[in-house]
Amino acid sequence: MTAHTTPAIAHHMDLTAFNTLGFSVSAEQYITVRDTQAFIQWWCAPEQATLREQPRFILGGGSNLVLTQDIRALVLHLQTVGMQEVKRDDMHVWMEVQAGEMWHDFVMYCVAQGWAGVENLALIPGTVGASPVQNIGAYGMEAGQAIEYVTAFDFATLQMVQIAGQECALAYRDSLFKHALHNEQARYLITSVCFKLRHDLRDWQATLGYGDVASRVRENTQGRAVCPNDVAQAIISIRQSKLPDPKVLGNAGSFFKNPVVDKPQADALKTQHDKLPCYPMTDGRVKLAAGWLIEQAGWKGARSADGHVGVYDKQALVLVHHGGGTGAQLMTLARAIAEDVQRKFGVFIEPEPIVV
Ligand code: EPU
């Protein structure tokens, strides 16, 4: 292997710029992966035997991550780029996208080609490699609906594996990768994701059922046929009006998952709070809007006593870092909110991001 492809290990690497909440923690050891092949070859060499036994942590865009302390592990930061068409038929095109590509750039590429399948997921921060981990979703669409397969390096067997979308246990903000990440030794390094997109849009129906997406799209299109880019543009403007830009105000998107409760519990809550937003699920249970519960509990726009962390004033589901704070402070705030919601509504809400 040539010297320039051998990953250099940095020690006590500052991760402030690599997590969108902007918490200042460091990684004991840190490697940037820019070439998957070269990394794997290096990783499997006999000289790395000790390194292979050490705890490791895989970092993508850092947009769904709460760092509460220095990471005592080897942090692998994926920065591989590239997108490639791997197959096409009359209706679909299959794109294999490297893990380090920014998700939003991929979405914009697809809509620019006139392809459908990920347009409702515009402006979600983070990388393509992270998209299957928590099965990113928004406005009636989930990444899992378009994922054909995930290619990953399996640290347990030192082999590359290809896992079909159906085998990834993709569910609401969940997948097999999310669980494999919680293990001390993160098992998979997702290297690329293959998406199946539609290029033939005859009889295509845009996904407009969520919130004010339909009205926003109608406003922009004024009666002409809707294309995937119209949907993406509508979603971008909706997201910009509700969600803080991580470059301006540290955040990790929705901080809590929307809780799913049994129908009788949802019905009981609804009789007490007729405005409670409820979304029936296919399994009969009901998803509730955590943001609504948090706002009703009085937390919207709240700040910790020192002012470092708080609840976003336009969307109560988003916790923000105003500067000078720590992940531990954010978690203290999150616990106080969750306990209060539990006390007032009897509903358990749990954090959505990965907490380290
Ligand atoms: N609501 C309030 N007050 C708030 C926030 C929300 O009353 O402060 C109400 C809204 O009025 C609405 C309902 O709660 O009736 C749902 O709100 P919204 O449509 O804004 O969506 P959400 O449930 O807060 C979820 C996802 C978002 C995704 C949007 C749109 C989760 C955890 N969050 O948020 O995903 O963009 O729907 O699909 O499922 C993310 O995961 O990081 C994320 C931003």
In short:
26% of the residues lie in helices and 26% in strands.
Structure description:
The protein is α+β, with helices and mostly antiparallel strands. It has three domains: 3-78, Uridine Diphospho-n-acetylenolpyruvylglucosamine Reductase, domain 2, CATH 3.30.43; 83-222 and 226-238, Uridine Diphospho-n-acetylenolpyruvylglucosamine Reductase, domain 3 (2-Layer Sandwich); 250-355, Uridine Diphospho-n-acetylenolpyruvylglucosamine Reductase, domain 1 (Alpha-Beta Complex). It is 26% helix and 26% strand. It contains nine helices and 19 strands. The chain has helices at 36-44, 49-53, 103-113, 176-182, 213-221, 228-242, 263-272, 290-296, 327-345; strands at 10-14, 26-33, 56-59, 65-66, 71-78, 83-88, 92-98, 137-138, 141-142, 147-154, 159-164, 188-198, 250-254, 260-261, 278-280, 286-288, 309-311, 318-321, 354-355. The strands form six sheets. Strands 6-7-12-10-11 form a five-stranded antiparallel β-sheet, with helices on one face. Strands 1-2-5-3 form a four-stranded mixed β-sheet, with no helix packed on it. The longest helix has 19 residues, at 327-345. It starts with 9 loop residues before the first strand and ends with a strand. The relative contact order is 0.13. The model has no long low-confidence stretch (mean pLDDT 94). It binds uridine-diphosphate-2(N-acetylglucosaminyl) butyric acid. Residues 138-139, 210-211, 242-243, 253-254, 257-258, 277, 289, 291-292, 295, 300, 315-317, 352 line the site of uridine-diphosphate-2(N-acetylglucosaminyl) butyric acid. Uridine-diphosphate-2(N-acetylglucosaminyl) butyric acid binds next to β13 and α8.
